[in-house]
Amino acid sequence: MSTGITAVANGFRGFARYLGGVMGADAYAKYLEHHRASGQQEAPLSEREFWRDRTDRQDSNPQGRCC
Amino acid sequence: MAGIPDQRKDGTRAEGGLATDPDLPPPAVDQATLEAEDRKWTPAKIAMWVAIALLGGVAWFMLAIVRGETVNAIWFVFASVCTYLIGYRFYSKVIERYITKPDDHRATPAEYKADGKDYVRTDRNVLFGHHFAAIAGAGPLVGPVIAAQMGYLPGTIWIIVGVVLAGAVQDYLVMFFSMRRGGRSLGQMAREELGVIGGTAALIATLLIMVIIVAILALVVVNALGESPWGVFSVGMTIPIALFMGVYLRYLRPGKVMEVSIIGFVLLMAAIIGGGAVAGTEWGAAFFHLDKVTIAWGLIIYGFIAAILPVWLLLAPRDYLSTFMKIGVIVMLALAIVVVRPEITVPAFSEFAGRENGPVFSGALFPFLFVTIACGALSGFHALISSGTTPKLIEKERQARYIGYGGMLMESFVAIMALVAAISIDRGLYFAMNAPAALTGGTAETAAAWVNSLGLSGVNITPGLLSETAANVGEQSIVSRTGGAPTLAVGLAHIMHQFVGGTAMMGFWYHFAIMFEALFILTAVDAGTRVARFMLQDSIGNFVPKFKEASWRPGAWLCTAIMVAAWGAVLLMGVTDPLGGINTLFPLFGIANQLLAAIALAVVLAIVAKRGTFKYLWIVALPLAFAAVVTITASYQKIFSPVPAVGYFANNAAFSKALADGKTEFGTAKTVAAMEAVVRNTAIQGWLSVIFVVLSIIVIATAVLATAKAFRDRASGTATTDNEDPAVPSRVFAPAGLVPTAAERVLGAEWDKVPADARMERAGH
Q: Burial, B412: exposed, middle or buried (Cβ in 10 Å; 0-12, 13-18, 19+)?
């Protein structure tokens, strides 16, 4: 019984993670991962700075949406 | 010849001269193993494909040959899904083998340009969803509904066959070649491959086409919201909801995208339910009851403000909402059709299939059906999305087939489901909703009388049915709600109420459908205006350098105002058109979209030829030729047809003559002012058609010249230039498709053993 609940919970978490990925919710985590992996010296942007920078760059680099 | 060398069978590390790191496992399954896997036909695999082919064949037989009273919706699902599977498994692999020739030893831009922001390696299944959300919008939900005037079969065949041979091919190839060029845009590729003339023509055509597409999408929203207090309230509420989400994400809890999306979604549902309550009150019905011209002006003002506001405040949060809704819509459509399985009573070919004066859109089946359904079969707009964002996120080259080709098949499936949902309603209701008010007279009584006078087989509609349906979905009237969106919404409400909630829920389902279509379209309007503004700024910047600075406010505002004025003028023209805007303008939308497809395919043709792939050039030439013939024929008829219902100039001449003769009403125009409006509108529409088609012919001609030159160069042994980024060896591995193959699993396990720091030693560059 409890394994069934765990399976459902895992499935739901997996789906939520997938949905988050599609919407780009994991962008900051991926940025940190890249920052770590590329061994840069300066400190990474904070979460607040990162999201600010992200939307501000979209201002000068717009992407179309389809019809 | 430049370009990638053919992959060798031995699959050594130095494959194609690209030396990958010997300390790491190979970044690609070697070619011989890949081919062996492909060619190995086990009995189970054969049985599966035979079953798919048989099921698909039976489904097509049920749709196309069997002429019963009704046909069950499930056959549409089987016919489309089986055809997609076969197209994906066999045709897209032919394209991969002979045209794109991906090489997983090469790093993709997401790897060699990795910056953690724009260039980020993304899991293939996540990217599939992301790309799908970017290409799918209101288009595939609207076009098939309008095309249902001709019966279900022509639209169904075009959506399914068109996507396999044309739409998905375009998306995949544009995405692949953009990926090989570091994620360059279609415009940049056109300039590089076709030279200054072809490139400039492509740029101007893209800009104009964007204006038309935004205007007609806006027209669909205006038509859906006109005289609908419930719709105006709930769609209007999306603006404060999005603003709240924007502030929440910027200041309160940055980065909590899922959290804010769920909050936004709940608020959205509350807005839909609240809309019903507000529209039920006397003041609400009075305050939110707006005519179409007012809504159009509101949309124009909104469009300008939305395009100059910072992205974080309005566009980004609404994008999240719209992605959330997209998933909801697909689930809902699938439930509606697979679970409820409605019976379809619409004939395969309707009485209008052989005529060119249909009330919903005018023109003969060929070519106008093929432009009416653009998104879902072949959409040029996708080329703008497939070049740009997605190629910067792909992890491995071989994944482009799954994401590009597969993503477009998915959109086609959405189009099929929308078609089925819309044709599940009564045919009389369909024509009463989709014919312009000039024909139906605008009231339930006149509309019913008009529909019954058409002499359609099996159609006998009562005014009672029209007013009852309107009352059920919470509207005062559904007569002449043209544009496709309201019809789809009634169709969905009709199916969903059998599934959840009964008649009491029909109003909710109807406005849920209107809400998501409006949301998609508003996002497209806002983003389209921004993209067009940047293109304009860039073009003016060639003469006045100051305009190139994106942060220079006066320039940005002026260019935004020009673009909004351009689409706003077309929108107002459509709203006030005495002939009914959708009827005359929707073909222009389809023509514009597919001319863009022809431009994209022309650029791809030149690239493929320059790579020396002449034997399989037909894979690109076939959809290009079809798109060119369809759009040029359609444009030709729109310009030169002597039939006023079809030809813009014929109509212009007829109305000009009537004015000159001193008549005070002519056809559907009841006043002199209306007649003058027709003269003005048809002249503008006609000249727009002329400009589009001339620009597109220039682009196609330069592409054909570039192709011929590549052929001559090859024959004479001259080296052709190649605009691909230099090949960089890859240091990562990921499977190509949805499910990893046996060989991919083995290699993946090898990679899992490599310590993370060993993979990523190539430090910041």
A: buried
Query: B506-530 burial by CB neighbour count: b if 16+ within 10 A, else e?
Result: bbbbbbbbbbbbbbbbbbbbbbbbb
Q: Is A45 a member of any domain?
A: yes
pLDDT at B677 over 60: yes
The pLDDT, as a whole number, for residue B17 is 62
Mutate to test the interface with A, among B141, B211, B258 (most CBs of A within 10 A): B258
- pLDDT band, residue B581 (cuts 50/70/90): confident
Instruction: Tell me which chain A residues have a C-beta less than 8 angstroms from the C-beta of B170.
Output: none
A4 CB within 8 Å of a chain B CB: no
Q: Which residue of A has its CA nearest to B260?
A: A25
**d(Cα B287, Cα A28) in Å, to the nearest integer?**
44
The pLDDT value recorded for residue B10 is 39
- Which of B116, B323, B389 minimises the CB distance to A35? B116
> ipTM score of the complex?
0.94
pLDDT digits (tens, 9 = 90+) for B592-620: 999 999 999 999 999 999 998 899 999 99
Which stretches of B373-503 are DSSP H helices? 381-386, 400, 406-423, 427-434, 437-440, 444-453, 463-472, 485-499
pLDDT value at B733 more than 60: yes
Number of domains in chain A: 1
Nearest by Cα to B532 from B500, B499, B559: B559
Token pair, residue B701, equals: 């001609």
CB atoms B530 and A62 under 8 Å = yes
Inter-residue contact B196 to B511 (CB < 8 Å):
no
Q: Which residues of A touch B756 (CB under 8 A)?
A: 37
Nearest residue to B582 via CA among B200, B283, B74, B142: B142
Pairwise CA distance, residues B100 & B110, whole Å: 18
Tell me if A32 is assigned to some domain. yes
Q: Determine contact: A67 vs chain B, CB below 8 A.
A: yes
B729 has which bridge partners?
B106
In a domain, A33, yes or no: yes
SS3 category, B709: helix
| CA–CA distance, B153 with B148 (Å, rounded to integer) | 9
Which of B115, B117, B563 is the best mutation test for A, with the most CBs of A within 10 A? B117
Mean pLDDT confidence for B145-155: 95
Residue B104 clears pLDDT 90, i.e. is over it = yes
Whole domain around residue A53: which residue ranges? 24-59
Tell me if A12 is assigned to some domain.
no
Of A23, A25, A67, the CB nearest to B138: A67
Per-residue model confidence as pLDDT tens digits over B52-79: 999 999 999 999 998 888 999 999 999 9
pLDDT band at B4 (very low <50, low <70, confident <90, very high): very low
Q: What are phi and psi of A63, to 5 degrees?
A: -115, 135
> Would you state the pLDDT for residue B125?
96
Lowest mean pLDDT among B40-49, B256-265, B444-453, B670-679: B670-679
